[in-house]
Design brief:
Order of helices and strands: HHHHHHHHHHHHHHHH
Helix content: over 70%
Largest sheet: none
CATH topology of one domain: Cytochrome C Oxidase, Chain A
Strand content: under 5%
Bound molecules: protoporphyrin IX containing FE, fe (ii) ion
Radius of gyration: 22 Å
Structural class: mainly alpha
């Protein structure tokens, strides 16, 4: 009976707030995919929506929605784990935290509407302030930038002071220190310079030092927390792994920044620095991979010996976290390493190869585990001791993973064609770019990307249905 279903078993407002962030995140994820499908179609039919909703606009909304939904899901995850890790039921200023959520969401809505309906402005200061800044991935206009900083300060203060009051676990200590770096880096992408090299120099501090340092550390803390929740992993073990990962991620990721400084007008010593340190970046990703599988294997062994207490308490979350371990290593580690040496990058730079890596890495390293966190939140919201994967969960896992993997393979083929024809054979000129894009191999690859994109989208529909129904279904079958 529907009326007996409890959807909000939380004892804590912090966790409820976490779920509010998750809801917005999933809506933006859907919007991201729709924009991707439009942009992908424009590769095949360049006239599609031409002068109405251009490729540049669809692409902009696609990748900005990506970044924003992930940040929402990250904040949601923090509010979800905060009471458990600190031992304090409510953050110090939960009311302010909620207000910040509504302000942020209203601002995001306004920015998206401006992206979609105003799209571009004249080359004046006012465009930077009110329409967009033109900095890939973080295009929000300046007024919104300033608002975001204010809202994030409220969020950070909540986390920091709650941490100071409560118990200080290793997970929470890493989280608090890392969040400060993550938020602080955003500021390096906010000021304006006339010199495009200087602009790009700082812009990469946000993009690279987010995804290859602070975000990676962030998902390390999530994996540690989630493994304790789902399989009762031993805290000492996951925290030991976490510290090792932190050391290696920062050790390689910070100077690995050099792999974006090869061709933008920065001094040539970046070739060596970028080559060396970014080549080391896959090492911590192997550690993260081993971490998840090691804990899982170990606990499964225990499970047999020790009975019911050691079962997997959340099937879909565990599946997504396992895919995260593989996906992070494959998308960031392997696909990243492919093009990170300057000798290779001179051919692959800015080709569809980059897009292949970008898709697989963002999906593998971040989308997966953040979806896992949503399932963890749902399990608690519905007060379930155990949540098993449903048919919908499995369809979502299979179709989304298969779809993104398929897109990455198709884009790798398109990139390979660009490297051989446009760069090596025709010498990378303007005309060469168009010649390569009009050859059948390229068009076929782009066709497959669009098909695989549709598969991903169907998977997303299953995911959405599952997130909306899995809790009540499980509750009913438990009764
Ligand atoms: C989860 C982690 C990662 C994510 C989400 C990620 C994502 C991306 C994205 C989206 C781009 C394209 C940026 C643009 O628009 O220009 C990019 C570029 C690049 N990434 Fe990663 N990346 C990750 C990790 C790595 C790692 C570990 C390596 C090396 C081992 C790497 C090597 C590169 C290189 C060399 C480029 C420049 C490509 C070019 O010259 O066109 N990435 N990455
Ligand atoms: C429905 C499925 C999707 C389609 C059809 C699609 C399509 C596209 C297209 C056409 C672009 C522009 C590429 C270019 O400028 O050459 C793009 C860029 C991008 N997409 Fe997607 N996308 C999809 C899903 C995703 C997912 C699931 C993620 C990550 C979780 C993602 C992350 C990105 C990133 C990071 C870029 C920028 C890549 C770069 O500049 O190298 N997309 N996508
Ligand atoms: Fe990078």
């Amino acid at each position: 009976m529907l009326s007996s279903i409890k959807t909000n078993n939380f004892q804590s407002e912090s966790k409820k707030l976490g779920m509010m962030y998750f809801r917005v995140a999933i809506v933006l994820f859907g919007a991201q995919l729709l924009m991707g499908l439009i942009a992908g179609l424009q590769f095949l039919y360049p006239e599609f929506l031409f002068n109405i909703f251009d490729f540049s606009v669809a692409r902009m909304v696609h990748i900005n929605a990506l970044v924003v939904w992930m940040l929402y899901a990250m904040i949601g995850s923090v509010y979800l784990m905060l009471p458990d890790e600190t031992g304090i039921k409510e953050p110090v200023a939960i009311g302010l935290g909620k207000l910040a959520f509504w302000i942020l969401t209203a601002a995001v809505a306004v920015v998206v509407l401006v992206y979609i309906f105003v799209q571009v402005g004249p080359g004046k200061e006012s465009t930077i302030w009110f329409i967009n800044e033109g900095r890939e991935y973080i295009e929000a206009p300046r007024w919104a930038d300033i608002g975001i900083v204010a809202v994030v300060l409220v969020f950070y203060a909540n986390v920091f002071f709650t941490y100071m009051k409560g118990q200080k676990t290793g997970i929470m200590t890493v989280m608090v220190a890392n969040l400060l770096a993550l938020a602080g880096l955003y500021i390096t992408g906010m000021f304006f310079t006339d010199n495009i090299s200087v602009d790009q120099f700082w812009w990469w501090w946000v993009i690279h030092l987010w995804v290859e340092a602070t975000w990676e550390v962030f998902v390390g803390t999530l994996a540690a927390y989630a493994l304790i929740k789902i399989i009762n992993a031993k805290r000492e073990i996951v925290e030991m792994w976490l510290w090792i990962e932190v050391l290696m991620l920062f050790g390689s990721g910070i100077l690995g920044l050099g792999h974006h400084y090869f061709w933008i007008g920065t001094p040539e010593y970046w070739w060596e620095i970028g080559a060396l340190f970014s080549s080391l970046e896959p090492v911590p990703l192997v550690a993260m991979f081993v971490h998840v599988l090691y804990d899982w294997g170990k606990e499964q062994g225990h499970g047999e010996a020790m009975g019911e207490d050691h079962v997997i308490k959340n099937g879909p979350a565990m599946a997504w976290i396992t895919i995260n371990a593989f996906g992070n290593f494959l998308g960031a580690g392997i696909w990243g390493f492919f093009h990170t040496l300057p000798q290779v990058n001179i051919y692959t730079h800015g080709s569809q190869f980059t897009a292949a890596h970008g898709h697989l890495a963002f999906f593998g390293a971040y989308a997966t585990i953040l979806i896992g966190m949503m399932y963890l939140g749902l399990q608690e919201a519905y007060g379930l001791k155990r949540m098993k994967a449903t048919f919908n969960s499995k369809m979502a896992i299979f179709l989304i993973t298969f779809g993104v993997l398929g897109m990455a393979v198709a884009l790798t083929i398109a990139g390979y064609e660009q490297v051989l024809v446009e760069r090596a054979e025709l010498g990378a000129g303007w005309q060469a770019f168009f010649t390569a894009q009009n050859l059948p191999w390229y068009i076929q690859a782009q066709t497959w990307r669009e098909i695989m994109g549709l598969v991903t989208f169907v998977g997303f529909v299953f995911l959405l249905i599952d997130l909306l129904t899995i809790g009540s279904k499980t509750q009913k079958s438990d009764d």
